[in-house]
Amino acid sequence: VFGSPEPFLQKGFWPPEASMKRKVLQYGVGGVVTAVALWLTFRGLDWGKLRESFGRIDFFWVGLAVLSTLLTVFVLGMRWRLLLKEKQDMPLGYLFRVNIVSQYLNILVPARLGELAKAWLPAKRYNMSGSYVLGTVLIERMFEFFAWVILWITVPMFFALRDKFRGYSATLVICGVIIGLIVLVVLKREMVRRWIMFLARFLPGKLREKLVSFLDRGMEPFGHLKNTRMILKLSLYTAVIILMS
User: Fold this and answer.
1) Residue 44 falls in which region: left (phi positive, over 0), alpha (psi -120 to 50) or beta
2) How many CA atoms lie within 13 A of 236 on its CB side?
3) ∠ Cα 49 54 56 (to 5°)
4) Which of 14, 34, 200, 241 is surrounded by the most beta carbons within 10 Å?
């Protein structure tokens, strides 16, 4: 697509009309979805108040906020690239775009389906295991989750929020359970694999094989957490991301 058209011309071949129709359909559907989304966003809007609000905007701070957001997504790409590098050294520009798509989908679609898209897109493009890429995404979320819990417990600014969130103690319990599971996956991966095999023994043969294979490849990225240097790098990236956020 992005190369020279000469090979196509030499063979007397040009992309079929069906491909062009498919692209037109894709752009058409995208345009319709965008139009509907804009209508849903701006329906019932008081345009007079909107103009008044824009008149009070200090665009210096808006620009600074946009720059901070873009830098945050860029650092997200750097951290993710560190986790993926063992299997595939992906360009930062591509990881930046995937993170933008993922965050956009998380805003539009419930249940944080953007995380699944974030795992699926590079897996498809670079012919990687989807469960492996999903494992790297889970590691990212794990580091952010632990960082926020630590902030919530230690930083005075967050103390007042405790009464506004139910299940504060439950959060700590969940955090502890997750830590325990991660320690098991990191240190006793083969034992966890045997447990999975034991629990999956009632499933049909092909389904059991696919499930075990999926979970096995999904656990593989957690081997990074045996490396102290890797943990320090991931922690540093996470700290920078949270500070810029």
Assistant:
1) left
2) 8
3) 100
4) 241
